[in-house]
Amino acid sequence: MSKLTTTVPIKRPKSITVILTAEASERLTALAKKGKRSRQLEAMLRIHDSLKRVPEITGDYWEITTL
After folding, report:
1. What cellular-component terms does GO give this entry (predicted)?
2. Which of 32, 44, 66, 67 gives 20 to 30 Å between its CA and that of 11?
3. At a CB cut-off of 8 Å and minimum separation 6, what does 46 contact?
4. What is the pTM of this model?
């Protein structure tokens, strides 16, 4: 008898580059320091949180880049 096996694809983390306004960069730095986290970890946590809470962005997305 042969065993039936299934392979589950491994989902590896991906790295991206993000362009921030000067204000957003300063805020990210301040929040990372306050939380005692790196800027990279702070950005990752905030992106994951946003993706969970905001299903889709429509309309004029430039207005959300203003803090």
Report:
1. cytoplasm
2. 32
3. 28
4. 0.71
Dist. CA 29–CA 12, nearest whole Å: 27
Give CA torsion, residues 57, 62, 63, 65, to 10 deg.
90
Quote the tokens at residue 12: 């590896």
The span from the CA of 41 to the CA of 65, in Å, is: 20
Q: What is the pLDDT of residue 1?
A: 56
Is the distance from CB of 65 to CB of 58 less than 8 angstroms?
Answer: no
CA distance linking residue 9 with residue 13, whole number of Å: 13
Inter-helix orientation angle 39-53/22-34, to 10°: 100
> Domain limits of the chain?
22-55
Are 67 and 27 a contacting pair, CB within 8 Å? yes
